[in-house]
Structures are given as structure tokens and as C-alpha cells.
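Why do we care about 3D structure at all? Because function follows from shape, and shape follows, mostly, from sequence. That is the central idea of this module. The next example makes it concrete: a single protein chain, its amino acid sequence, and then its structure expressed as C-alpha cells.
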Amino acid sequence: MPPPPEIRILKTAVDLFEAAASEFAAQASAAVRVNGRFTVALSGGSTPRTLYSLLATKPAIPWEKICFFWGDERHVPPSQPESNYRMAHEALLSKVPARPENIFRVHAEEKDAAAAALQYEQTLKDFFHLSPGEFPRFDLVFLGVGPDGHTASLFPGTPALNETQRLVVANWVPKFNTHRITFTLPVLNAAASVMFLTSGADKAAILHEVLENSAADLPSQRVRPANGRLVWLVDEAAASALSRPTQHR
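And the structure:
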């Protein structure tokens, strides 16, 4: 049975981003001390953009030893505004001394989304030296939760939710009439640490469902690392509908 999630409520969004940046820095330093590198899977969206911009101002992070991946990507070229890679590059990667060879983006400019997913899966297998049937163990995976309870590009009712063998798939999302390239649940649940960032009153209702309604069967509820930490960093606005005791920081 996976351990219960750590739920930390921060007073404001600014406090949330500072807490997330501190966690990132601490985890990166610890991983580099032990393994000589830190592997992180980034997420897209407005909340991570603010965090990435903050991280870019932090000097005491071993950027040269950090290997960057993406938990999901839109099926667009990296030049497009919708690209998760482009957002992370603009907010963070272009401003810190990360090594180009340590930045592993999804080649979502491929016309065939399934081919792009297979290519990224092979990238993970090669980088982590995986044997058949193994899943990569990221040091940290950043995630968010959408108003429908999706996370990464694992949307309710979509085929990728039932994937148990693949690492990366092209998930057809009917509500957007497009494919999204995404890590599968086994990859998310193999991570050493998963951190959800949730900010704003508009997330209060879905956060209540995810954390307090076990019958909801939402994609984000299926993220439960088997042998790792699951941390929810939320601000008071997002936590306003929660009823159970939580840990304030």
C-alpha cells in the first residue's frame, strides 16, 4: 500500500512557489551528492511557469547536473506557444547554465504523434538503461491537476489510463480533438518523488474531489508512487473546500 500523500497548505501562491523551489533545490542537491545527477520531469501550464521563473533566480542549484524531461507535451512544434518545452525554455532553461545534452524534449513536431511517443519512450529506455519490463525512476516529477481531474495528459475516459506496459503514449483527447503525448501511470508511479502544484480558488472544487472523494476515480487520484513521496503543495485558495486536517507550512 503506497504511503498517504503529504498535503502542505501555503498561505499564498507566492509562498507555494517558494516552497516548491526549496523542495526542488533540496532534492536536486541531495540527488547530485548521491548519484551525480538529478532527473526531473517538468509539466506545463501557468502554475509551473511561475515556479520555473522563480527557479531561474536561484543561484545555489546544480544546474549542470540536472537532466530535464517532460511528463507530457502537446502535439505541436517547439516553436508554438502551446509547447510545454517552449514554455520551460523561455521561463527557465534559457536563463540557467543547463547543459544542452541534458535537455530531453519530446519531438512533438513529428507528424505522427504515436511515432513521437515511441521515440520518447526509447529516449527514456536508453537514458535509464532499462531492461524489458522496467520503468524509469525519476528523482522528481512535477504535475498539476486540471478542472476535470486530469494530470499530465491523462484525461478521464481516455485509453492511456489503462496502459500498463508502455512508458509514453500518444493519447487521443476528444475534448481537444488532438493527441497529447504523455507519460503513463506506471512511469509516474515509479518516481522517487511526485509533486502536485495547485493554486487558486478555481481549483478548490476539483482538489476537494481528488483528495476527499475516493469514489471519483479521477486520473490524478491514480498517481500514487509505490515507493516514493507524493506531495501536494496547495495555497489556501485552492484548499478552501477541503474538510480534513492538513499540514500548514
